[in-house]
Design goal:
Helices cover 42% and strands 19% of the residues. By secondary structure, it is α+β, with helices and mostly antiparallel strands.
Length: 326
């Protein structure tokens, strides 16, 4: 049964990812693909259209398990055990282990080896006290599914859906956990733009303001960037003016483009015809600088002979390239 507009608890993750809306809905991840790649890429990834989503990776599984441990809800996890001995498998080399792993995935579970589960528990245990240092208590509701409608530039309704990690209604605050390699402030900023966090925060803020209009203008979206490796540093991040504007502009562009593609059933790739390209200024400038260096790299040697002054820059490579050569 299709979900109507609303904020839902206890929606199975498989149901969410299969898109429970009446028509193909726009999620923040599809929106990011749409504006950063092409409509054809978005069509390909959407479960109701191309149906070719991202394959789960070990890093994605670890993040999902840590999410579930910290939030108390999320995808089910299953430690793969040898049915003959009752002992956990040490790896997935055996056929029986691989079959049980694949069966677990087909049933919506995250298959884990014992050491992977213990590692995830250690990560969660390391992150909890770091959150408390910032006074962050995940005391609201976890793993909520939001279904709402946006309006495109021509006033057409656009169905949207989102999965909120945690929402504290009294504080009008949405928390989103990111399990990352680095929570350095610069890495967090790059992550928001590179992985669509700017769009996500704009979309989910809009969702709550539409579903709970009494909170309009007060909703705060906070990313919790948490390092998987010790010492498990945590960096809470909220959007300032330009990042907020950037995300809202891209979310709005995605809404308009998604609506247009759905109505016309046309999903273009990057270009419609061959294109010509110019050299980018940075590449041309670098080459001109190398030419200038080469022209001026001669000096007087013994007995008045002209010799070259040798440097990595003169030959067009730097330290990184030299490391590969030698």
């Amino acid at each position: 049964m299709a979900l109507g507009v609303g904020l839902y608890e206890n929606i199975d993750s498989e149901v969410y990812f299969d898109d429970p809306c009446e028509v193909p809905s726009l999620s923040q991840s599809i929106a990011h693909t749409l504006v950063s790649r092409s409509p054809l890429h978005a069509w390909t990834q959407h479960p109701k259209l191309g149906g070719i989503g991202k394959k789960p990776s070990k890093e994605m599984d670890t993040g999902s398990v840590v999410h579930a441990l910290l939030l108390g809800k999320g995808k089910r996890m299953l430690v793969i055990v040898d049915p003959e001995t009752g002992e956990p498998f040490g790896d997935f080399k055996k056929k029986a282990a691989r079959e049980l792993r694949d069966q677990a995935r087909s049933e919506g579970c995250i298959p884990l080896l014992q050491h992977q589960y213990e590692s995830a528990v250690g990560i969660a245990d390391g992150i909890r006290p770091k959150l408390k240092e910032f006074g962050i208590e995940l005391s609201g509701k976890s793993e909520l599914t939001a279904v709402w409608k946006e309006r495109d530039e021509f006033a057409h309704d656009v169905w949207c859906r989102g999965g909120l990690d945690h929402f504290v209604e009294d504080a009008a605050t949405i928390y989103d956990l990111k399990i990352v390699r680095s929570s350095h402030p610069r890495a967090c900023q790059s992550h928001l733009v590179g992985f669509g966090g700017d769009i996500q925060s704009a979309a989910y803020t809009s969702a709550i303001e539409k579903l709970k209009p009494e909170l309009a203008g007060r909703v705060q979206f906070v990313f919790l960037f948490c390092e998987a490796e010790p010492p498990h540093c945590v960096t809470p991040v909220f959007r300032l003016g330009t990042m907020r504007e950037y995300g809202e502009l891209r979310w709005r562009r995605a809404i308009n483009k998604w609506s247009e593609c759905l109505r016309n059933d046309r999903w273009p790739q990057y270009v419609d015809e061959p294109i010509g390209v110019e050299a980018p200024q940075w590449a041309l400038g670098a080459e001109l600088e190398l030419q200038f260096s080469a022209d001026n790299a001669m000096s007087d040697g013994p007995n008045g002979a002209r010799v070259s002054r040798v440097s990595g820059e003169s030959y067009g490579y730097g330290i990184e390239e030299l490391d590969r050569v030698f």
